[in-house]
Amino acid sequence: MHPLDGAYERVNGAREHLDTLKPLIRDFSQEVSKGVTLNYKMGVSIVRGQKRRVPIGNAKMTQGATPPRISRLIGEVVQNLRTALDYLVYELARFDAKTIVENTQFVIVDSEKDFQKNLWHLRGLTGEHIAAFKRLQPFDGCQWTKRIADLSNPDKHRHLTIVKSPVIVAIDPRITQAILAGEHVNVNDYATISITFSDGLPAIENLEQLVLRVGQTLDNFKPEFK
User: Fold this and answer.
1) DSSP assignment of 8-19
2) Are strands 191-194 and 50-60 parallel, antiparallel or unpaired?
3) 138 with 115: CB under 8 angstroms?
4) Do 125 and 94 contact (CB within 8 A), yes or no?
5) Do residues 72 and 62 lie in contact, with contact meaning Cβ atoms separated by under 8 Å?
6) Which residues pair with residue 57 across a beta bridge?
7) Angle formed by the axes of helices 5-33 and 68-97, to 10°?
8) Is 185 exposed, middle or buried (0-12, 13-18, 19+ CB in 10 A)?
9) Whole-angstrom distance, CA of residue 154 vs CA of residue 79
């Protein structure tokens, strides 16, 4: 067994939760799209000096609260990734110090001053390995670790606020041609719904990137155990 097997297993757990999450979000998006309406009127547009009547519309939708299960699974994905990083520090400190080092933790802070204050979480590590973890800090330009720190904030999961109510991100422009042609328009066929975090980043794509980044970080440190 490799010392990082436990950390990799946590990443696998994050992938499993993500696989469960994807169809739930897809089904929820489809359900929300049923509440989409498009109100439009015929307006006038001037194209190459000629007036044309065109539909001018506004899309509206019924906002819905994100199901608690979706928020819970997102939280479990993130917590698995956070734990994998903690396992990495623990195993690396034990390897470097040749003994068990208690209360280690993968530090994620926004300033070098705070990093220095939290060095006790990295005790037992060599200077080279501490420097490597420093390069993974938000204050050193590493944004994915900041994302994990933000999403693993327990207050956000307690109140289920990390996921924003779904919003329409696009109305297929082909709906205009359909309206002009006098076709019966089903707005659901033209509306795209996206489940995003509270800052607007798409949830699934963002979580997939975090899983990838943590896995790559484990891969980068794996050769250190010689």
Assistant:
1) HHHHHHHHHHHH
2) unpaired
3) no
4) no
5) no
6) 40
7) 160
8) middle
9) 10
Q: How far apart are CA 187 and CA 50, in angstroms?
A: 29
Tens-binned pLDDT, residue by residue, of the chain (226 aa): 999 999 999 999 999 999 999 998 888 877 776 766 665 555 555 556 665 555 555 555 555 567 788 888 888 999 999 999 999 999 999 999 999 999 999 999 999 999 999 999 999 999 999 999 999 999 999 999 999 998 887 555 444 445 655 554 456 667 666 666 666 666 667 667 777 777 778 889 999 999 999 999 999 999 999 8
Model pTM score: 0.80
- Angstrom CA distances, 177 to 55, 158, 184, 192, 217, stand at 9, 46, 11, 18, 49
Q: Under a CB-based contact definition with an 8 Å cutoff, are residues 82 and 152 in contact?
A: yes
Nearest Cα to 81, choosing from 215, 221, 225, 222? Answer: 215
Q: Residue count of the chain, please give it.
A: 226
Whole-angstrom Cα distance, residue 138 to residue 205? 20
C-alpha 115/C-alpha 122 separation (Å) is 10
Nearest to 58, CA basis, from 181, 175, 180, 198: 175
Rg (alpha carbons) of the chain, rounded to whole number: 24
One-letter amino acid for residue 12 of the chain: N
Q: At what angle do helices 143-151 and 68-97 cross, to 10 degrees?
A: 120
